[in-house]
Amino acid sequence: MASSSSSIFTGVKFSPILAPLNSRDSRRSGFIKDSRSKVRFNPAAHHRVRVEAQSLIPYNGLWAKQTTNKGRWKRNIVLGERVTQPSLSQGRSFCLTCRKTQPGIRRRSLPGAFVDASSFPLSRKSSSLGKPSQIVRATVGPDEPHAAGTAWPDGIVEERQDVELLPPEIDAAELEAFLGCELPSHPKLHRGQLKNGLRYLILPNKVPPNRFEAHMEVHVGSVDEEDDEQGIAHMIEHVAFLGSKKREKLLGTGARSNAYTDFHHTVFHIHSPTHTKDSEDDLFPSVLDALNEIAFHPKFLSSRVEKERRAILSELQMMNTIEYRVDCQLLQHLHSENKLGKRFPIGLEEQIKKWDVDKIRKFHERWYFPANATLYIVGDIDNIPRIVHNIEAVFGKTGLDNEATPTSSTPGAFGAMANFLVPKLPAGLGGTFSQERTNTADQSKIIKRERHAIRPPVEHNWSLPGTSVDLKPPQIFKHELLQNFAINMFCKIPVSKVQTFGDLRNVLMKRIFLSALHFRINTRYKSSNPPFTSVELDHSDSGREGCTVTTLTVTAEPKNWQNAVKVAVQEVRRLKEFGVTKGELTRYMDALLKDSEHLAAMIDNVSSVDNLDFIMESDALGHTVMDQTQGHETLVAVAGTVTLEEVNTVGAKVLEFVSDFGKPTAPLPAAIVACVPTKMHGEGVDESDFNITPSEILDSVKSGLLAPIEAEPELEVPKELISQSQLQELTLQRNPCFVPIPGSGVTKLHDKETGITQLRLSNGIPVNFKISQTESRAGVMRLIVGGGRAAETSDSKGAVVVGVRTLSEGGRVELFCVNHLINCSLESTEEFIAMEFRFTLRDNGMQAAFQLLHMVLEHSVWLEDAFDRARQLYLSYYRSIPKSLERATAHKLMTAMLNGDERFIEPTPKSLQSLNLESVKDAVMSHFVGENMEVSIVGDFSEEEIERCVLDYLGTVKASHDSAKPLGSEPIVFRQPTDGLQFQQVFVKDTDERACAYIAGPAPNRWGFTVDGDDLFQSVSKHSVAHDGLLKSEDQLLDGSDRELQKKLRSHPLFFGISMGLLAEIINSRLFTTVRDSLGLTYDVSFELNLFDRLNLGWYVISVTSTPGKVFKAVDACKSVLRGLHSNQIAPRELDRAKRTLLMRHEAELKSNAYWLNLLAHLQASSVPRKELSCIKELTSLYEAASIEDIYVAYNQLKVDEDSLYSCIGIAGAQAGEDVTALSEEEEPEDSFSGVLPVGRGSSMTTRPTT
């Protein structure tokens, strides 16, 4: 797995240019599943805020997933990929077309020291605008079927920077020649083309080892559909993928597969081992053969078509959340002049119901052929010629049987847009096309094939200066399920390909310029309650839309919307008019170069899928593909030529559509779209109607244009948070040292096998660290504090979550973090408060991270206005529950199951009003006691470096034993069945019909403790009862060593954690096979376990989406599967697949610092006494030793009887049974942040994962 980047600029989002940073932002960003799209029944886990920055150079990893996943604008309408992709070994595959991206659900982001990652997506890609006097349109016609107008049209010349602005010592002619030089291409990327036109790209990549990615991208999507074919590309994706027998044969090999559809592409992909288990059989031919069948030779059986028709109709209703509808509204107005605003990949319900097999087959024949496809292979490859031979052997004859090959003199199906993707090939590399046309018949076939390959034109009305087009009035989308006000101002221009040093230089300058906006607003409005919830500026390329879009997004409480818009426009004007300061230029340039250097050093740790996604997106946009080292070297080369004047000149052009709004010379916004609720909360509790007009929107923009502005003052950014003299003084006062670890008698415990070292400081803080070089010169650190929300008392409900949010907004450390490449997050869960740091070891980055931790522990800042904002935030969360079908349903279930315990749901208005600054401060800081804290660090440091930092910055923290309080004293109980609340329903009024359901019940915690106070290990030996013949025969097959392993597993502290994890995999597979595939009652169903560590309880939950007409049957089917493990016994192959899935995941993650950080958690925590080193060392052998009988031991601890099982069905529609308009003061919301208006247009661009 790729390691995570300590990136630089919060929310600065650019399209990938140099190397993979976060491919989720590109081709597959739509597949990152927001935590709010599935109820995790872990509400406090979402109470996270962070201060961070994002790298200029694309990269990916666990950190990137977390930071980009929430609230980031993803223009990726891909129906598609499930985030946690089920493995082929489970026989599951979700249509990427259908898996919703949840691009726009945003947490409320307020200025604070630890800034929510959802704020300020500023983008990496940009272009310099020309100033033609006429309206310009980019048309994708016969020569450009691959993507929609991604380049500047003829007659528009990108402005080159005025060389007169450069310092006199730089020769202008030499500089111009240098900037005109082409960027270097990735040295390991191999491109080729078969005689039938199939293009292929191959990249060797060793992470993860012994695995590879194979993606077949067919250049056909929803914009290719005729008026009566809307959704048919997505239908073919489903039928072809799930109907493939050759794909099914990969089951059990450890391969995973999936598919998705977007506007212009249908992608089938397989992630596979290079060889089969326990043999050296090469899996490349089998994987390629499966892709060949899926893409070019599918069997359109009526039974499969009908099965997928049901699945897609269910998927359509599942996707149709208010977030999806907002996305569709944004796209419709942004692209009102072309099909992108009308052809959403999911399709139209009335048409999906009608198509027969013949119509589906004809669309496939028209578009699915090798010359209209590209094959990408990235992975652990050591013999490229052998892979090329496999490609030729599998695909070489496809498309040549009855068809003539197009000549190279005429653009093929891939068209002119393919020229940058695959240059003309010399003879011998990919073969050349014959220039001769053999006869008239062959020629007619060629013409016919080419004509069918032509993509319908996609035209864009560009937002260019000086055009005579009238401004489109602001559009207003009003809906009762919206909670907050949001407005989006769009500017749309052609993509500027990044192919020369000059292109890269422009990107760098825009990045520096736009990065300043977030930190300015954060600083300027930090000490007051701002009128906005968030102000975000996004400037990015979209390969799916074929354009570069700049978006100003403002979200606010409805009552504050006018001031919010005014302030946002005012700040954009300030930046445009006065530019960045010299200090800002120096600060951000330095940080970008450090970040670039850091990522270049991690070149060998980028995963294959991230490299592949980056290449696919870069090719679609026409950017030169470079690796991380080339990216850093080229960035350094252009950085020295950048001047302050040029940065401000280039950056100002990006903002003119806002800052110069209304001027004749300004670019016209492509669209202005406001998404607003129908009701608003005033100062009191009651709601009133919310009304807004287009003229009022324009007036609020104009008020920002007229507001006075002044230049930004230079800010002093501290180089350190604690001086050496202060540190020396503290050291003399507190005399930090390491003391013996309890039970060991030694001050340092080091395990050679794992590399884990355990220490304990004299102030009581335990420390775990592991030296790891897998992520070069990078490190991660986590502070875990026991307590969390479970420690809240009846008179302090909500105090911990509100307090953590308040603490996160104290201090002014954002720019300190930027200077040192630190990412920091602070969150509260049910049982812990956690603070996590990502840092680079360059330029004292680790010392800076420790200083920041020291500051929080010793000098935490608590501000009254920060408390007010935090309390208002949770009040907004609470009010938003009735507007979300999923949250309202989950809320009602959790309230019933846990007897209304507010510690596991959002605090009510009554509880929030009873809090004050002192009470929340006390609720949080009372947990920060030496022995109740644990710090773990993983990274590429030396033993001397880490021990010095630990002593200096953690050892000098005051030992606060005197403030210790008993934590979590109030018991947690599941409601008794006599109350009759096992089954409930929720009805939400909505214009469209949807349904969902949750089924939950008690489970033990990870270590075998139950809510009743039982220790299951005391009785685990009594559970070894054979079920019947199957388990008896299994027991007979065990030899002596296997019996010893099984006995060891039963007595191991992690027995229930291991067996429960395997059980969850098995139940998930059965739910999919039965409820989704066989019965057709749902598109998405899942089983999840929430096993606590400190609390003596856990629970399971089944989440299912359906239609109002099927949801009751779906719930009954889920219950039947859950309770049917005794009557339909677990087969050995099911257990083997579950083991393989979890072990493969474990092995892949071992190269990630973040994963090791998770493994180290609670190693010395007194509140988790059973966690020990063997839980890490023996993890693999414990999984391997698990038997079917062990799984039944775990299963028997789940309470699945009617009295213990709770379920709640939620139905939305115009005829819903009753309107959920308010919650009583005794009810509380669940964990998501849907109350904050989602902003984005991503979920409608792609389908969800096929499986």
Automatic annotation (TrEMBL):
Membership in a protein family: Belongs to the peptidase M16 family.
GO biological process per UniProt: proteolysis
Domain of life: Eukaryota
Domain Peptidase M16 N-terminal: 212-336
Pfam families per record: Peptidase_M16 (PF00675), Peptidase_M16_C (PF05193)
Gene3D superfamilies: Metalloenzyme, LuxS/M16 peptidase-like (3.30.830.10)
Native source organism of the sequence: Brassica campestris
GO MF term set: metal ion binding; metallopeptidase activity
Name under which the protein is recorded: Peptidase M16 N-terminal domain-containing protein
Domain Peptidase M16 C-terminal: from-to ranges: 355-592, 914-1142
Keywords: Hydrolase, Metalloprotease, Protease, Zinc
Taxonomic path: Eukaryota, Viridiplantae, Streptophyta, Embryophyta, Tracheophyta
InterPro entries to which the protein is assigned, alphabetical: Metalloenz_LuxS/M16, Pept_M16_N, Peptidase_M16, Peptidase_M16_C
SUPFAM superfamilies the UniProt entry points to: LuxS/MPP-like metallohydrolase (SSF63411)
